[in-house]
Amino acid sequence: MARSTSLSEAEAGISCFASSLPGFRGVLKHRYADFIVHEVARDGALVQLTSFDLPTECVDVNEEDKAAPSAEADHSQALESFRSLCGDADCNALKGLLERVSAGGDSDVSPVILSPDADKAHRSEVHNFFKKTFKFLVTDTVEHGDGVQRCIRVRLGSGAGGGRGGGGRGRGRKRKNMGSSDWRDDRPFDSRGSSNWSDNVGKFLRFHLYKENKDTQEALGVIGKMLGLQPRSFGFAGTKDKRAVTTQQVTVFKVQASRLAALNNRLFGIKVGNFCYVKEGLVLGKLTGNRFTITLRGVTAESEDMIKNAVDGLGKNGFINYYGLQRDDINEVRKHYKEHGDIDMALRNFPRHLVAERAILQCLKKCPGNHLQALKGIPRTLRMMYVHSYQSYLWNHAASMRVEKYGISQVVEGDLVYNKECPPEESTSVNILETDDVHTNSIEIDLCSEAQPEESIQSVKIVDSGDLLKGIYTFDDVVLPLPGSQALFPGNEVAEIYHEMGRKDGISLTENAHGVKEFSITSMKGGYRRVFQRPIGFEWELMTYTDDSSSLAETDLDVLSRTKPKEANELISNQEQQDKLEKAPDTSVPTNENSSQENKLIGSPDTLSKKLALKLAFTLPASCYATMAIRELLKTSTSVAYQKTLIC
Hints:
Keywords: Isomerase, tRNA processing. 29% of the residues lie in helices and 17% in strands. By secondary structure, it is an alpha+beta fold.
């Protein structure tokens, strides 16, 4: 759904429940470790961090690269040699660059421009110095702002051994108009990795990324800075929650496992392991689903039977498969910009991961008033996500209408269903979100972990009277379309809500009215989504606890600490320290407004010294929201008005 801090569930079309069973009260994500997510790979394997060992396969690296110092090495002696070659000013500039590279972090590692140098022979000597001494840095010659003099630019390289830039972007290529504020080149550096690679080893390194309280882009951004790689160098099947402990597969092209493994002792809240070399990289949607282990704390209800009935009901009855709400916490920045129109202030305060907002503001700063051009400044894949968000908005409303009008007990004439009588060879795969190869896994894409942009589906059909007589379809087979050029709409009244809402918003679901493909529903292929979803492999356990900071579910790192304590203890210690500082508010809402009954609730701290927690474990297919399952269980809203803890 669209990212918003004020959108209510009703406004987003989320209004129905699968059962009439009463809910209870519980706190979601009191600690980020209460929300554990393991990706389920395409082959059905659960992605877990189980080893820090290097793969048995070998990658050929020449002796020169083996001896080359890394970005983290002590460069004091080399800097003194460089000082003799280029002087104090250039030496200090290089030293600052090396410090930024070594520190990693979220800030950009900006290139540095050395002093103007008219002596070509001396420039060649400087280039050779970097080639021999700082193999992880790349140099090239650029024009000074006066258009006459030449300067050497030094920037962070990429891949094993750093390289000399790639794809025609190395030292021999000169740049023009690099003076004043225009010298910086923000285009991606070479991300194709080492050229010294064995033909017998897969060209992609696949690893398991374990992260705590960080989103996927943030974690890969940190790793990329340390390796000198752009975020687009990494491939992954889907982004995972920030406020959670998650493990997922990631691939990177031609990077040695040893380089990545060496980062573990410097990474905070991040670990990498389970390395292997594979022939193909990951792309968005290349997963089966996610396995969730969710702990609800402070559980209270009128009776323990009420809790058990609600949990059993979720496992048996499932939930309405809504697209959940996604939110951010920068509303004040947006509000200030709306009131004052201060672009510079907004750019300073908008987080760097808000790519769309920053792209629009930067375009408006250059071309005031040209709003269409500003919208086109948003990366293409992200532009398409706005369309997908609107598709989700329509789908939610259609799902609510379908449930309210026809219930969830049976299929009715005109419903869309997966065609069980369709031969396997006629099955098709429809992408809900179109992507291009260039940006498939760019940091520019901002998705919640529970919402993947691709679904593989069978062909669908409209149920007729003959199908009802055969009785081969159930409500579990009912799907609804995400509008697009190839979408088939239901053959009953549910279809009208799509077109009615589109007309109210001035949007045509059948033709492109404005000529901008990326903002048109008809530019999307569309797709289909089950109205109803049952959790897979559903397990649950009631437990008691007394310490709010205690761990109630085991993470991958907890398991590893028993077998590899040296590698795991540092991160576990950091996690415990951070958890003690966390004092998340109670995010649940009591199902009973009568305060006089609250002292009688099971699990209430007023009646028992021990507190009650509910641990749930279940698997959902890609594109399903775990928060919608919790909503069904608690019968409470996931909107900001009712839940203060961030869901994504």
